[in-house]
Amino acid sequence: MKKNLIAGEWLGAAEAAENRSPSDTSDLIGLYARGSVEDVDLAAEAARAAQPGWAATSPQQRADLLEAVAQALLARADEIGTLLAREEGKTLAEAKGETIRAAQVFRFFAGEAVRISGEAVSSVRPGVSVEVTREPVGVVGLITPWNFPIAIPAWKLAPALAYGNTVVMKPAELTPASAHVLAEILYDLGLPKGVFNLVMGRGSVVGDAMVKHPQIDAISFTGSVPVGRALAVEAARGMKKIQLEMGGKNPIVVLDDADLDVAVDACLNGAFFSTGQRCTASSRLIVQAGIHGVFVERLAAGAQALRVGDPLDPVTQIGPVVSESQLNSNLAYVEMACSEGAEVVGGERLKGATEGYFQRPALFLGANNDMRSSREEIFGPCASVIKVGDFEEALTVANDTEFGLSSGICTNNLKHAREFRRRSASGMVMVNLPTAGVDYHVPFGGRKGSSYGQREQGRYAAEFYTTVKTAYEFAG
Ligand SMILES: NC(=O)C1=CN([C@@H]2O[C@H](COP(=O)(O)OP(=O)(O)OC[C@H]3O[C@@H](n4cnc5c(N)ncnc54)[C@H](OP(=O)(O)O)[C@@H]3O)[C@@H](O)[C@H]2O)C=CC1
Ligand SMILES: O=C(O)CCC(=O)C(=O)O
């Protein structure tokens, strides 16, 4: 059994969860400890005890540690990428890319650790000086999803450690292996005990205990809207800081003047790569009438030509869906789109060489924005195609959603590109690019029902992982 890392020790558990590959259910990756409420207690206490010491380390020590993690991830990118592809199902190229991205995140925050700064401000009172500084929040709880099993832990953990916090982390039970490797790397690098604690297990047990724990000061969560909302209520009860990254129903507008190749590539990539299992996936393709016919023809041909299969086979472009329940949910949305009047192309379950959860990418043609299949996040390889008359209608439809994570436009018209960037009600806007696939060093997050609290990633991560102190001094 792979064990939890709590207070610097590897601790087993009474129960273990099987980690099986979604592309081959006979491939048992391993048994992973299923932690308990008591494990959360131990981890939170250990993190609390370790926090003052960790905050007192020099920025250079923390930077060196984060840089060493980056190097370890890079040195093992092939091995970790293969493990990640096996446990989550994204292709080997995507999984290796994600591992490298995790390393880049650690390297970025190694730099940030030595750049923590404040402000000296003139007081309005004579003889008084004012200084604004940043301090760690304390103990942070990180609850991470299955769709980016190493990058999301990395972009929560690296800033947490860089700014002097200690951590209790719970990865998704579907994909604990990548997070476990991260824990092994930190352990092998000799991180002081209690600074980083890994508690694997069920969200309803471990995650729930984390958000309720009095020794955990802040929670950073990525996952579904219902769980995120429930955590926010619980965090408010305990007066904890909280940051939520949740769903999306991200639009790409394709205008008549778009470069057809660029638009088709952006939509295929945004909608279907990583099996559509990205909160930034392009799930609503909003297409102007003049280009609609030729665009749909090219898009449908492209979607049907995508090679679905074993993520470890280098020719595969689309891996399996992550789990049977997610596949069943996707298939129900395919049926729903059909019964709502859309013309469905693809979307059926595929038989692979192995027993896995393979699904052909699905397009819901002739959809409108009122259909449930166009409004609810599916989180699979499914995209609605919605025809519109002009730019204004496209923008209105794009913004007509309870979400607001990422949005995109394909156009060669500078005025429309600029207008879209200005008036899109989303946290991230892409021009001639897929809505998914973001840089690691700039803020990530959305508006409306997609996100809550401060932004993740880049320098903006400091807003969540630090707290500001304003000090006044009278020099006499
Ligand atoms: N924004 C995003 O990137 C993601 C969005 N999603 C959306 O969520 C849907 C369902 O996916 P799912 O994995 O079930 O998402 P969840 O929100 O259930 O899971 C995300 C994380 O939260 C944990 N969790 C679950 N329940 C609780 C709880 N009561 N208290 C604290 N933590 C909890 C999970 O643990 P565990 O899984 O171990 O039980 C996991 O670590 C997807 O179809 C998709 O729409 C999913 C993943 C990522
Ligand atoms: O699009 C990306 O690069 C990141 C997506 C993401 O963070 C997510 O799906 O949770």
TrEMBL record:
Keywords: Oxidoreductase. CDD domains: ALDH_KGSADH-YcbD. The keyword Nuclease does not apply. The keyword Oxidoreductase applies. Residues 15-470 form the Aldehyde dehydrogenase domain. Gene3D superfamilies: Aldehyde Dehydrogenase, Chain A, domain 1, Aldehyde Dehydrogenase, Chain A, domain 2. It comes from the Bacteria. The active site is at residue 245. Belongs to the aldehyde dehydrogenase family. This is Aldehyde dehydrogenase family protein. It comes from Ruegeria sediminis.
